[in-house]
């Protein structure tokens, strides 16, 4: 019996030692492996690398170069007709996107995509159509691509429209221009009385160049009415639904959508804001800032 007791005690001791060895080995392995890696920190949208400003512009698919005189001619056209929304350097502003980060620009080849877009506009989003001549359009395209190239080569953030860009006008010259070109529809003591207390800076400039009933790109814009004359002489009048260089569509009085190839009909467009659209092609850069300076005195 004594021998069996000794044998049982020996086996228990060996089992305890084995368990102790196993636990020690596990502890050493756990300490050697180090702490479990922390989960990656998610960058909030709009900050750090998730911010659009931190991303490189889309790569130009077809590298292009343009004569410097064509680029400079395009700069003049762009600043006078597009800079109030897209910035003087095409890098965007309060009313228009940064064109140097536009996929459309990156994929354009000498105006094959930009040209139709500029001429048709996006009236539903506040961008008017610009019926530029072929040479002026080619110059604007050249300038946009040149600015895109500069953006591709640059590092860091981009500037857009600064307040100082809007403070270079001459008030007296602006009043003279206003009285010669604007008083047929507007009055400094009537509809524009105290306008500078309602709108300031870039917002005032945008309202001056391309106003709408409730702000640019808004559904409150006054509707455009069009009268279409068919080859038979029949006329259809309705609300303009769509128009480009190939097609025109109207919603007639009965609510039907009707469309025709633009080359096969004659049409007359009655747009309450058309005078402003036409004026865009007449303004020089100085004219815009001079008139803005005058409007800023109407308080």
List keywords for this structure.
299 residues, alpha+beta, Cytochrome Bc1 Complex, Chain D, domain 2, SH3 type barrels, five-stranded antiparallel beta sheet, 11 helices, flat
How would you characterize this protein structure?
The chain is α+β, with helices and mostly antiparallel strands and 299 residues long. It folds into three domains: 50-161, Cytochrome Bc1 Complex, Chain D, domain 2 (Orthogonal Bundle); 165-218 and 277-295, no CATH class; 225-271, Roll (SH3 type barrels), CATH 2.30.30. The chain is built from eleven helices and five strands. Strands 4-3-2-1-5 form a five-stranded antiparallel sheet, with no helix packed on it. β1 (225-229) and β2 form a beta hairpin. α2 crosses α6 and α7 crosses α11 (285-295). The longest helix is centred in the N-terminal third of the chain and has 32 residues, at 2-33. It is flat and about 55 Å long. Mean pLDDT is 76; it is low at 26-54 and 213-220.
Radius of gyration: 34 Å
String of helices and strands: HHHHHHHHHEEEEEHH
Strand content: 5-15%
Strand order of the largest sheet: 4-3-2-1-5
Number of strands: 5
Q: What characteristic shape results from the CA principal axes?
A: flat
| pLDDT averaged over residues | 76
Overall CATH class of the largest domain:
Mainly Alpha
Decide which structural class fits the backbone: alpha+beta
CATH architecture of the largest domain: Orthogonal Bundle
Integer tally of domains: 3
Low-confidence stretches: 26-54, 213-220
Task: Name the quaternary structure.
Answer: single chain
Major beta sheet, specifics? 5 strands, antiparallel
* Number of helices in the DSSP assignment: 11
CATH superfamily of the largest domain: Cytochrome c-like domain
CATH fold title of the largest domain? Cytochrome Bc1 Complex, Chain D, domain 2
Query: What percent of the residues sit in helical stretches (DSSP H or I)?
Result: 40-55%
